[in-house]
Amino acid sequence: MKIQRLKTNPEYPYVYETHLHTCEASLCGRSSGADMARACKEAGYTGIIVTDHFVYGNTAVNRSLPWTEWVNAFCRGYEHARAEGDRIGLKVFFGWEACYKGTEFLINGLSKEWLLAHPEIRDCTIEEQFELVHEDGGMVVHCHPFREEAYIPSVRLFPEYTDAVETVNATHSCALSRSHNNPEFDVKAKEYALEHDFPQTSGSDIHRIDLLLGGMAFKRELEDSADYIRAVMNREPCLLLNGNESL
Q: Please, which pLDDT band fits residue 247 given cuts at 50, 70 and 90?
């Protein structure tokens, strides 16, 4: 299929997809990590963050597996994307999307090795997640906090256990989106972030290679996940992309 290209701003030429799923690890994923990497490179992205659904989210990995086997299987989508990214010149960072009864968080800045060494993350509470992630320099982003869907029993907010808020989710507002399409979810998320003075992020929440062209555009190239965290937490100038326009 023909991949649409990003409409880039010359002042913010480095664009990153921060919320992306693969079929290797997300049950709702429709494209492999390698295919997602190729599509994003063709669209003009500088980099992507693979954020597959974690243990109690919509994971494609058998939850009954021993922890080491589960982590190895869970990371395949990222690893395939990373290998292809290295080949074609696309930065690929690792993260995941943790789920607590429909309330979901993007975890950034940690690694597969960290997961292998911290099996307690599997069954921790939201408070314990925040503490564990922070111990080693990670970041917790409350993603699509006001989305309303059958799989989300209620909107629940945890400002004391959140570093940043995803205030733009392209599935909510992009004209190309096939699901969760309600821009009001993002309006409420932005109001929440402003009320608590949270840094804001943007991602497409994509599951297939027909991209929504959301994400974050920066003035400089980001080196790794830790650099992404610095850019977000230091509130570096950026554009939040919703697939239709820059915000």
A: low
